[in-house]
Every structure is written in structure tokens, then in C-alpha cells.
């Protein structure tokens, strides 16, 4: 077995191997170890998948640190995750979206249709990702100008509360008006005027004609451009609204921030971020894998794969914000592959996903851990729900093991839907308690192994019934 290049003396390799200071001050990413630790808070097991995803995410940052001449040559190592339903593939994507400080889009591959058919074309995911990036950068820029926007909004509010005099006054008479304005400023900052009503003019979007384009896939971008063009033709209307000071402050701050932000700079920065650090999670990739029959729906599936190929390989996509290159966007695909196999995908597409990770089926021990260990564990959720009715739910350890055992057994006998089986079992188990809770509260209810068997035994015996209920 080859020795690890990391020092033997180090129990925690991340402490010994320190990477230099981050050159890009905007991005301070987590280390692979920290990413897996964060994922461990919500996902049980699947260490291989977590490790691959963590390395891929960290490589996004590493690529930014290498010399520019080599940077463009480093292609992203796309990942395909293979495993049965309910084992954590989609959950890894959801949690990864929160950890990745970069544009992230999760989309189902089954939504796409081949060019020429009615439906969404594959390029729409790049347009969606760019739109997300623009919103992300706009939000960051809004935070930077927040203080200036608040100042401007405060001055506008004071103008509404204490309208400036239009009649020329003597120099000596200007002092009382200033002192009144300052008194109102103090009251405004102390929150004493929040409920007072003011009238202000609010911009309304022009009510131009609604335009819808019913055509082949890819025309949704044309529809968006036409609507934008027509909205610019029709002048924006102003409408007077009577609102509270609290509401007016929000409206005025948004308007002020909009004026202070340079949208051209935002768009340019967003496109660069998509191209250099964008991540797309393609779920249900197995649904577009054709089995090679050459007729029927398989033709359209192969068409979707052919359309996906240039996007994954690297191409230019036209969006309303500009042209976006997809060469360095990271693609993470996942699928159960119950019917089709990864080898049923086009060979060229398979080659663009060099890293394959197989996720393990869940065991009885995994089910027990899923019920209690994650921060959003099902037991924790049900306890919190019942606490709102003054019901204190206590789950004994034997009861947890019994629930896990039943979930595992039902999965083995019927369809294996992974951890989703726990949702159906817990809902059925606590159905009576949830119904009676408002009438019996306050009360402490202890869930024992005997209670679990009593409520689920009849269903477990009748296999046909368990197929429908559990």
C-alpha cells in the first residue's frame, strides 16, 4: 500500500499542510476537510461522495491561484454520482449550494428537450446561472452602498416629514427650520415616527402589452428580450402612495441603492464569476440515458445528451447580460441508474465526467443515525413541532432502533426509497399524537419500542398494505 505524502507525525494533515495566503480577497473558501465536516452535520455516511465534492470545490479556488498562462489549461474535473434514490445525492447538492461562495444552480436533466421539440433547451441553465450570479453580485454591491443609501433615504424622509420652505425667508429665520429638521431626524433615528403616514411617489413598471413567444426551444430568451425592449419603450409611471415611515424607508433605501450601483460593473463581474467559478448540479442524469433502441423517446433523450455535450465541453452561450463561456464551469451530475446504466450515456459525454462516485445503500445503523445525529434530524423536527402544542415528545433509544429496523425492512421488501422511507414511517407513527395534541396538551409523551411495534405491526404484517402506506 503506497504511503501518504502527508507527514506521519500529523494526526490532522490540514494543520501541517498550510496553503499560502489567499490572493483573491473576495473568496475565502473552506478546506476539503472543513467542507466534509459541514456536510457531516446534515448527511450521514457517503464519505466518498463528500470527499470528491469537497476536492472539486477546493480546486475551483486552487485554479485561481496558478499563473494565468496555465490557468486556462486546467479544465474542471466533472463528477457523476451514482446511487439509489434517497441516499443523499440531492441533499449533498443542496448543502453544497450554501457552502459554495460562487454561482450554483441545481436543475433536473429531465426538464430539457432536444432542440426542435417544445420545452426547455440546455442553454437555459447557463442563462439561469448567469441570472443568479447577477443577483448575487448585485446583493454584494448593495451591501457596500448600504450606508450611503440609508443616508439618502433619511434625507428624503425628512423632506417628506418637514417639507423645505419654498418662500424665500430672511437669513435670521432659517435657524428655526433647521432645528425642527434636526429634531425630526433625532425622532426618526429613535423610531418614534415609524407609524406615521407619509405620501411618496413610487415608480411603477410600465403596463405594456404582454408578449409570449410560442416557438421552438431556446425562444424564451427572445421573449425576455422583447419584453425588456417594450418596457423601455413605454415610460415609467409614477404613482402616489400613502405608506408608513417604516415602509417608506425600505422603498427609498431600495431606490437609493439602485441609483448608487453601477449595473454595467455588476454584469461584468457576474459573467466573470460564472465563467471562473460557476457550478451546475445536473440531477436525474439517468433519465436522459438512452438504452439504444433507436426509436421512441430514446431519440429525444440522445438529442438532449448531444445538446449537453458542447455545454460541458465548453462553448459560448448568448444571455441577455452578454456572452458566457462554459469552459471552466464545474458540472456535477447524479442519477439512480436503476434502469439505464452510466455506460448508456454517449461515450463523449461519459468522457466529460471523469470522476465517478458510487453512493452506498443505507443500512439499519444509518437509519438510526439519520433519525438523531444531523442538525435537522427528523426526531428533532417532530419534537419542535409538538412543542408548539405544549407536548414534550421523548424518543427512547430502543424506539429509534425499532423505527430504523422497520424502515430498513420495508425498503428490502418493497421499493428501496432510502431515507425518504423514514418520513412516511414517522408520519404514520405520530399521526394519532399529531391529531390529539391540541386537546391533551400540556403533556409528556414517551415513544417506546412497544409503542412503535403496536402502531406499525399490522401494516408490517400486510405486505400489500405496507406498499401503499409505508
Plain-language structure description:
The protein has 470 residues and is α/β, with parallel strands linked by helices. It is 52% helix and 12% strand. It contains 20 helices and 11 strands. The chain has helices spanning 13-16, 32-40, 47-65, 68-71, 89-99, 124-144, 146-161, 174-189, 220-233, 245-260, 263-277, 297-313, 347-351, 364-372, 378-387, 397-413, 420-429, 431-440, 449-461, 463-469; strands at residues 79-82, 104-108, 197-204, 237-244, 279-283, 316-319, 322-325, 330-335, 355-358, 391-395, 443-447. Strands 2-5-8-1-9 form a 5-stranded parallel β-sheet, with helices on both faces. Helix 16 runs parallel beside helix 19. The longest helix is centred in the first third of the chain and has 21 residues, at 124-144. The model is unreliable at 1-5, 7-27 and 210-218 (pLDDT under 50).
